[in-house]
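The data layer described in this paper is built around a simple, fixed record for each protein. Such a record has a labelled line for the sequence and another for the backbone structure tokens. For reference, a complete record is included directly beneath this paragraph.
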Amino acid sequence: MKILAVESSCDETACAVVEDGRRIISNVVATQIEEHKLYGGVVPEIASRRHCENIVGVCSEALEQAGMSLDECDAIAVTYAPGLIGALLVGVNFAKGAALAKKKPLIPVHHIKGHIAANYIAHPELEPPYICLVASGGHSHIIKVNDYTEFQTIGRTLDDAAGEAFDKAARSMGFPYPGGIHIDKAAKSGDPSRYKLPVPKTENPYDFSFSGLKTAVINLVHNAEQKGEKINVNDLAASFQHTVCEILTSRFIKAAEDNGYKTIALAGGVAANSGLRETLEKKALQKGMKLYIPPVSLCGDNAAMIGSQGYYEYMAGNTAGSDLNAVASLRL
């Protein structure tokens, strides 16, 4: 089964053709990062306008690379939640129009489910049940994947997501948007023990909180500036990254152990962070757990992951009609 997938939840306009949920036939992403750098973050109105401008061309390129026409696709999958509402609406309305015009099934896909499904493309042997840590700019969740379309969230961030904390801490250190990649690079040359940063406590041992940690970094930088002291940026980046990775890894591994999982997975944009990948790989090895991580190319927002999850949603009978609407905030 060949599915044309559309993703437009934030600032990436993406289309892909995926076969049977596991094989990428084409995968095209038009990024807006350079434009949003000017503002230090994603501007929703600009993102929506660029999606409008890009989506037809990106879809055409995905079909061209696949050597297919829209008529030859069996269904159309689209991210409908969660995300920036204006951005989501562009993708949803495009997919609805295409599905209606070509009389194809329309498959709504939850964005977080899509991130998890990126592992199915990278690891054909992976099957539920397992437990997954989803860490991105807008999400930090620990999720039981009971089946391809059955999920249970047992841990989540109470405030900032890990990726958001990376970006805001990076800005205070003088790095441009998106900050996570710059912290990752600087951390390789820094001393992670140089700065002692707080580890927030939560009532639920599987929950996360990054707001206080982010604020601690911002205050540290501002206090140093007021005193005329110089911050070692590489050391601060290393200390911050180490702290975030330890928080994510320790709580995720505890959740896996407490719930009896030996198969674990990582997903989301922050899964591209080398510190997190290394920390989690080391801990999984120590605990005798099998860890699945998608390649860096599938960690960020892309349509291939939506096509993968879309296949399993379709097999479970989860399709939508022309009344499908975008939803800015929607839990699993």
About this structure: Residues 2 and 19 are 4 Å apart (CA to CA). The beta strands are 2-7, 12-19, 23-31, 75-81, 106-110, 130-135, 140-147, 150-156, 263-267, 290-292. The chain has a mean pLDDT of 96.
